[in-house]
Predict the structure.
Amino acid sequence: MTVSNPTPLTSDDDWWRSAVVYQVYVRSFADSNGDGIGDLQGIRERLPYLHELGVDALWLTPFYTSPMVDGGYDVADYRDVDPMFGTLADFDAMITDAHALGLRIIVDLVPNHTSDAHPWFRAALAAGPGSAERERYLFADGRGADGEQPPNDWESIFGGPAWTRVDDGQWYLHLFDPAQPDLNWRHPEVRAEFEDILRFWLDRGVDGFRIDVAHGMIKAEGLPDVGFSTMTTGQRQVELLGKGRLPYFDQDEVHDIYRAWRPILDSYPGGRMAVAEAWAETPQRLARYIGPDELHQAFSFDFLDATWSADSFRKVIDTALAESTIVGAPTTWVLSNHDKQRHVTRYGDGAEGLRRARAATLLMLALPGCAYIYQGEELGLPEVLDLPDELRQDPAFLRTGESRDGCRVPIPWSGELAPYGFGPAGSELSWLPAPATWRGLSVAAQTGVPGSTLELYRAALRIRREHPALAADAGGVTWLETEPGVLAFSRAAGDTVLTCVVNISGAPALIDGYGEPIASSETLTGQGAGHVLPVDAAAWFERR
């Protein structure tokens, strides 16, 4: 694949304020060597596709040395590439090519926990209770006469207790899988280590970091009980995530970490940035992660969680925009990611789910701020719900029966048979199987096809990049009066006005007075006196 008009990286320090970022789940994007697992060289070979799609940056999920218990979010070496993904030389070549195409690279940083294969944790196990090595993690004595009960009632996000006992009788904390021991972020060595890790990747040209579990590094002093657990009440503690206070999330001291990181980011040229995967009980507490002395962005998961209704979207958008004004930073919008069911399926699956997903895309891309696209959503991929249990690899599946594997199936590139060009010609391997229904959803099958989801994304991203009313410095959102169930807002730059209309009313809607349509998720009918917007559809209108 070649690029007709490459656009080298610009020097805009504020690029992240209105960027469209494409999330690459590295294992499932492109396999260069035929082993059935995506890799860095595969990403490098597909960079022209992403350039032509019209995105501004790539966010790569972890590719570091790892036992892969949790898909790479269990890191054994933060300064190297796992052999299944390639080498540091492959990373350097990929980022060089990406920058030559005007694409920036954001990498996942996993600071809350390491792998149990990390040299620090192995040393902690070998050194024993009371040792300096154990101080880097959260070891504690158990409760009960012989310490046979966990130190407190905390639960793992993946289900079950958040504590595992080791042979000498102590327990260690893991808010996720037992293979992911939590670090002690009150220890100066931990803080110094990650500041060095930041510099290591910034020196290699990385443009930003997505911080995994950004709300989790600091735990409340004394490790107090939550006060309830699944065993006692039937309610999982994780149900409070983003809704209430937990002693192991969103502690005030976590902001000290980011205030130390921000000067490091600012010391490098080119607008190096960081975005938090953070959950907090109120928008106000989430906004604390953002600012000139902390992080640049935090994901707004409320937009992802909005139900398919005009009231739900309106409330979420208004809240997010109000908070972004307070902190002076752009809102982030996201519809899917590697941890959530794909939004085609969340919105109803099948033809209905796809219509709604396409409409939601036009809604998201018309909003001010930064948009994150998860790989394959530009193809309209649904969640794969019928993966055989024996093939599922999500550690949460073994503990709760819930699995994120269905959104991680390798994306289809071409051909009539799975794995649809995921690997080199002739390769029949992929670490998770793609369904037969995906043959018509591949990149090759949709390229150049009018009305296809891929061409809708390409057109919308091109307009977003070029249209003055969608620029970073354009006006904000002005809501317009509409009939019930229809959302409409305008954004303006000078005498140019772009209006986004989304029909969630359950019946076709007559749209008049907003100008000429320049993009639509479904075919519009009518002209002159107005255009008819079908059910579960969105359109952009331009008036000058």
